[in-house]
Amino acid sequence: MPCLNISTNVNLDGVDTSAILSEATSSVAKLIGKPEAYVMVVLKGSVPMAFGGTEQPAAYGELVSIGGLNPDINKKLSAAIAAILETKLSVPKNRFFLKFYDTKGAFFGWNGTTF
């Protein structure tokens, strides 16, 4: 169950967040090789955030997955999510960090139990 959690200082009022969630879900599922039905994407806007001493548009994300991550896949995921944020929210690619966590099923709860 991959979970992508993105926080940005961009105000999401009037933004088509459904398109962002859909594109991010599709990209994560395709690149990690998991069904879209298991991918969760969380998008939080208007988060107080400074990057490099300025409050210009920026974002931070964390992606947790049970397997499917490696240096090559992580690079592709970083590029795909950065492109979505740049296109949809005008967050420059160089103002976005994405942290990856490859975890074990026992450390991921779902459906009242763990994987």
Automatic annotation (TrEMBL):
Taxonomy of the source species: Eukaryota, Viridiplantae, Streptophyta, Embryophyta, Tracheophyta
Full protein name: Uncharacterized protein isoform X2
The family this protein is said to belong to: Belongs to the MIF family.
Gene3D superfamilies per the UniProt record, alphabetical: Macrophage Migration Inhibitory Factor
Signal peptide residues on this chain, from the entry's feature table: none
Organism domain of life: Eukaryota
GO cellular component: extracellular space
GO MF entries: phenylpyruvate tautomerase activity
